[in-house]
Structure to design on (581 residues):
């Protein structure tokens, strides 16, 4: 095998484009290869979404034991929204604040790894991913220890009077936002890094040779060139953060509950399927709307 | 003057290291807590050093049952998702066919949809279809959300491959099967292995989708979730630390292998181009 490899790669050029459909025997091959996976995705991703939409229009007076009737009850939506708009708004608010914090931390990190790390690049990249090696829930619970009322962090903040003598971090919005930022930061950093790594350092030098201040160089050169990674990263951060309810449950109280907590209890505790489905569908539509507007404003749809 | 210039050049690195510290703080706490004897079941604070948790990780046997179940589910879901996803990646990179863009959307969407929506919609389907929730509904769900990630990973590897290697093999009278077996597969294998590892870690760590589709079956994340209300046994941190160490070893091993391959590539001027990664 290695002998064959030697013969054909001496000139190492990029791979040729995919060929057109081959002769007869191969006509159906791609469909055969695709069928199992596509069928799985269709059956267990696409069809359930339709079922969710149907469930959101069930008669709200039905129950799991007596069965639900599809009565096209569009009233489920305003009812659900009226009852739970604070949690709904909170999801977007917390995810938004976490995103801003994430950008403030993630951009310098990605930039430093891509442009300043030299031979330590790979090691630092592993360090970004490494926290995800351990369980999401166990990591989040660790924040409970860090932010605990008896912990060193709260003690320190009380000593420097950033927190009152009875001030807490745990069970506050601060804890939930901090947890969200922490848990989704790697998703933001990795695509950003990929963009910044391709950034040609000579462009930055050229910019400063032409008397641009570092700030101006950043605004006019670095930032626009890192846009694809920035867009992909913010979406990868924002979408799961909005739908997350683990941080609100473990680090917050019912006063910090996000829409996920409500949907969880609608499906698993209160067994109110129409309402849970309506909220779930609303969440998806709201996220899609935000993403769509964002992509429009950001001026590129290539990431999709 | 000199200090300010030094600062201007290095502040980004300084911030980066602080952020890395933020990322690692909880890991350090998990490792520390794995050696802790908590003062009460509901306490999350450090109390007293002990090796008991590591000596006896299965003191609460239902936790170890849950870990075992997560491994089983992860294994089955990984094998299925890797097989389905690899076949799809081959079709997407190597063949032209109708409906490619629609298929791309179908593959992309599960990665962009909130887990909450996927979890609840599957639950709605299973309940409407009268499917009893349990081990197999979890497997179905995990295969579903892992497939897309496998496709993307394997596709990247396939797209970066030199087709002429295969053409050369065919020119030298290798049959199609021989070419696939001796050339294509070995070259794509690192991508498939990476995809499988990714799928396993996604499955093993999934909470939200599993929560909606598990019925009374308890996986490790489900166990931790339940225990968070009743009081977390310190052994949970042993599992967390062990997971971290195992994954770290895997990454180090693969990067060492990569480095050795690269060195070999330097020694032999005409080596395989795909040994880069």
């Amino acid at each position: 095998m290695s002998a064959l490899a030697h013969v054909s790669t001496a000139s190492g050029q990029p791979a040729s484009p995919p060929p057109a459909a081959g002769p007869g025997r191969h006509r159906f091959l791609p469909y055969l290869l695709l069928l199992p996976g596509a069928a799985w995705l269709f059956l267990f991703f696409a069809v359930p979404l339709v079922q969710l939409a149907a469930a959101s229009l069930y008669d709200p007076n039905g129950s799991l034991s007596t069965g639900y009737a599809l009565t096209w009850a569009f009233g489920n939506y305003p009812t659900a929204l009226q009852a739970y708009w604070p949690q709904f708004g909170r999801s977007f608010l917390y995810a938004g604040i976490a995103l801003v914090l994430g950008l403030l931390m993630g951009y310098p990190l990605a930039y430093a790894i891509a442009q300043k790390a030299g031979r330590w690049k790979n090691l630092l990249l592993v360090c970004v991913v490494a926290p995800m090696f351990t369980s999401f829930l166990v990591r989040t619970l660790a924040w409970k220890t860090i932010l605990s009322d008896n912990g060193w962090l709260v003690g320190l903040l009380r000593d420097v009077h950033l927190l009152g003598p009875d001030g807490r971090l745990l069970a506050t919005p601060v804890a939930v936002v901090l947890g969200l930022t922490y848990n989704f930061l790697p998703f933001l950093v990795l695509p950003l890094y990929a963009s910044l790594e391709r950034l040609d350092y000579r462009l930055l030098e050229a910019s400063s040779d032409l008397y641009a201040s570092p700030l101006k160089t950043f605004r006019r050169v670095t930032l626009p060139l890192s846009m694809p990674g920035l867009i992909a990263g913010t979406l990868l951060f924002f979408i799961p953060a909005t739908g997350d309810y683990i941080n609100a449950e473990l680090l917050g109280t019912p006063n910090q509950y996000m829409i996920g907590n409500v949907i969880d209890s609608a499906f698993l505790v209160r067994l109110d399927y129409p309402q849970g489905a309506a909220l779930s569908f609303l969440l998806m539509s709201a996220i899609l709307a935000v993403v769509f507007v964002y992509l429009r404003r950001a001026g590129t749809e290539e990431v999709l | 003057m000199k200090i300010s210039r030094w600062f201007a050049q290095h502040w980004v690195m300084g911030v980066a290291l602080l952020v890395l510290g933020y990322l690692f703080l909880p890991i350090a706490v998990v490792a520390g807590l794995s050696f802790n004897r908590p003062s009460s079941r509901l306490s999350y604070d450090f109390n007293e050093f002990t090796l008991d948790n590591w000596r006896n990780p299965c003191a609460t046997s239902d936790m170890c049952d849950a870990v075992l179940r997560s491994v089983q589910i992860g294994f089955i879901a990984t094998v299925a998702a890797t097989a389905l996803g690899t076949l799809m990646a081959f079709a997407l990179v190597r063949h032209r066919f109708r409906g490619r863009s629609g298929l791309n959307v179908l593959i992309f969407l599960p990665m962009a949809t909130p887990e909450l929506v996927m979890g609840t919609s599957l639950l709605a389907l299973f309940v409407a279809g009268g499917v009893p929730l349990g081990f197999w509904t979890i497997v179905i769900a995990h295969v579903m959300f892992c497939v897309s990630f496998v496709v993307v990973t394997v596709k990247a590897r396939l797209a970066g491959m030199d087709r002429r290697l295969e053409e050369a093999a065919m020119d030298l009278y290798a049959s199609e099967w021989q070419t696939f077996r001796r050339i294509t597969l070995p070259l794509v294998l690192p991508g498939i292995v990476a995809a499988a590892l990714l799928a396993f870690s996604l499955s093993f760590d999934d909470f939200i989708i599993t929560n909606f589709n598990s019925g009374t079956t308890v996986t490790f994340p489900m166990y931790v979730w339940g225990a968070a209300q009743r009081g977390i046994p310190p052994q949970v941190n042993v599992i967390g630390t062990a997971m971290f160490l195992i994954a770290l070893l895997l990454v180090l091993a693969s990067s060492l292998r990569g480095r050795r391959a690269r060195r070999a590539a330097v020694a032999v001027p005409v080596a395989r181009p795909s040994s880069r990664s």
Remarks:
- Chain B has eleven helices and no strands.
- The radius of gyration of chain B is 24 Å.
